[in-house]
Amino acid sequence: MRRPAFDLDVLRTFVTGVELNSFARAADRLGRSTSAVSAQLKKLEQQIGTPVLAKSGRGLALTPMGESLLSHARRLLELNDSIFQMLHENQTAATVRLGLQEDFGEHFLSDILRRFVTTYPMVSLEVRIARNAELLTLMDNGGLDLALAWDTGLASTCVKRLGETQLHWIGSRDRPTGNRPAEAPLPLIMFDAPCVMRSAAIKALDEAHIAWRIALTSPGVGGIWAAVAAGLGVTLRTRIGLPSHLVIIRDLPALPTLAYVLHRVNEHLTPAARLLAELIETSLQEQSMTNGLGPG
């Protein structure tokens, strides 16, 4: 049996008339004649099979059925309007600017993008994969809407801590602590300063009274992995993206965890940017075990 369907235009007229306490004013607001509004109300009562309005003095009052209908009609109209707003936002050309620290960019970006474009196919994404310092500068200058970065201690209402991951000493499988004579300074493969991992490595070695030297610096993670694989020294990173031919070194000083945070340009993001922020958080949670995130 086919169920009858309400006419949303009729319901909107009914709700507007009740809220304005005048169906004449409702006709004016909705751009209809009073006779058209009267016809809509008559159609509504015929469809329901009972009056929704009753005379009360010089005006009209809701019947018990009218009161029940009003509540449901408001919900239907709110749902209808929210659907159209969402569809309009999804089809509106816009741009969301995302910054990712290099470790995250290589391993989480494809999953995040796939989910994002399903909901916002018309929104353009500008993705900047860079080091922490550059990302924070871009955020300060308004050049990014979102940035996933390592925690540098910046306190702000627009920064959300998403989790933390363990730092590790990493070396070549064949020469775990680098190609060096006994008692020689430990060769380090690092980013240029400033770098949160470089600072953590130096602090840990100094506290353990282990001599060290910077053997090579690289602007990118790929260069660090290559230098470590060649046996030029060791580095300090997380498990994220750790190549299979490199190993975690256990006989060097213990290391702390490093938190990762999501920066927002402000508290009032666009719907597309809000969704992207939610997808980043969800993706990190889902991959926390398989990609080496988490304090373990």
TrEMBL record:
The UniProt keyword set, sorted, is: DNA-binding, Transcription, Transcription regulation
Record GO terms (molecular function): DNA binding
| InterPro entries, A to Z | LTTR, LysR_HTH_N, LysR_subst-bd, WH-like_DNA-bd_sf, WH_DNA-bd_sf
Residue ranges annotated for the HTH lysR-type domain, each copy included: 6-63
UniProt key word DNA damage: no
State a single Pfam family of this protein: HTH_1
Domain of life the protein comes from: Bacteria
- Report the family membership: Belongs to the LysR transcriptional regulatory family.
Name of the featured protein: DNA-binding transcriptional regulator, LysR family
Q: Which organism is it from?
A: Pseudomonas psychrophila
